[in-house]
Amino acid sequence: MTGRPRSKFTSKTIKVREMNQVTAEAEFTGISVTPPAKSKIAELLANADEYHSAVRVFISGGGCGGMSYGMTFAESIAEKDRLIQDDTGFSLTIDPVAFSYLQGAEIDFQDNDVNATFVFNNVFQAVGGSGACAGCGAAG
């Protein structure tokens, strides 16, 4: 990962950045990432191409509940995107629209030796969605 200075945070502290400005942690509250998810994201980024600077959380239309969500590698981070990272290599970004829909969500990683997957809990809680449709990735 070149081109962007790495932050020097303690491993127990997650800081929020909007580009190069460190902001209060309260500005990213409402979306939580469990330790297993943070660890897996850091692992994925460590093994990714160097131009992948973070993992992006996104939402899109469709699915049985109207909106779906997912994750992909981010090749760039826009000025208004939120970025949360720590010194373990964990780096997650989200655009303002997705951020507003995912208030109250928790991102987890579960590995039961048969299936390993990221799980979004309580998705779309901020807009009245149930967040219970983990199987298809849609809730509304």
Compact description:
This protein has 2 helices and 10 strands, in the order βββαββββαβββ. The chain has 140 residues and is mostly beta strands.
CATH architecture: Sandwich
Count of separate DSSP helical elements: 2
Distance between the termini: 36 Å
Structural class: mainly beta
Give helix % range.
10-25%
Describe how the helices and strands are arranged.
Blueprint: E1 15-18, E2 21-23, E3 31-33, H1 35-47, E4 54-61, E5 67-74, E6 82-85, E7 91-94, H2 96-101, E8 105-111, E9 116-121, E10 138-139
Parallel strand pairs: 3-8, 4-7
Antiparallel strand pairs: 1-2, 1-6, 4-5, 5-10, 6-7, 8-9
Offer a few descriptive terms:
mainly beta, Hypothetical Protein Aq_1857, Chain: A, seven-stranded mixed beta sheet, globular, disordered C terminus
Note down, in words, how this protein is organized.
With 140 residues, the chain is mainly beta. It has one domain: Sandwich (Hypothetical Protein Aq_1857, Chain: A), CATH 2.60.300. Helix content is 14%, strand content 35%. The protein is built from two helices and ten strands. It has a seven-stranded mixed beta sheet. The radius of gyration is 15 Å and the shape is globular. The chain starts with 14 loop residues before the first strand and ends with a strand. The N terminus and C terminus are likely disordered.
